[in-house]
Amino acid sequence: MKTEESLKRELARLRKERTALSEQAVQDARSWERINTIGWKTKNVLNQLTEHFPGWKDDEDRIPHRDTDGQINTVRYEAVNAMLHDGFLKQHRKNGEQGAMIAQLREDFQATITKLEANITQLQFTVTKQEATTAQQQKGMEVLTATLKERASQIQRVSDPLELSKAAPQRVVNNQ
Predict the structure, then answer these.
(1) Is 118 inside any structural domain?
(2) Which pTM value belongs to this model?
(3) How far apart are CA 48 and CA 3, in angstroms?
(4) How many domains does one find in the chain?
């Protein structure tokens, strides 16, 4: 079994070789085969390091490498892309949920408006009915008032002659 230091040196050598091959201006089939071989060896060394030395952490995210398009990439860059994509999906899901909630709230709001309009119509009908009843009662009171005044005048007409007849006492003269 190799020591931790020898595995780290091997890993550094493989990464350096891979970087040198990646930066070559002309890349033929042999250099691509060599890069693939280096990739497998690097993976093997990383597995040995993590298997035999559990506390060991790889600094791969700090070492740039080129992808198949020749773009410089790092593990961190790919992790950021994955993180951004996850964030986008979460936000998209959240927006969909909020859209559904807004649609439900609009529907509930419209139903409430419809109920309130029905209540307003009912109240207007009740007010109209009460106004008609009030007008009818007002007319009835006017009729009663007129009737009372008429009765009062009739009573007055009957009372006046009675009072006159009571008011003048008659003297009986005794002529004997």
Answers:
(1) no
(2) 0.38
(3) 10
(4) 1
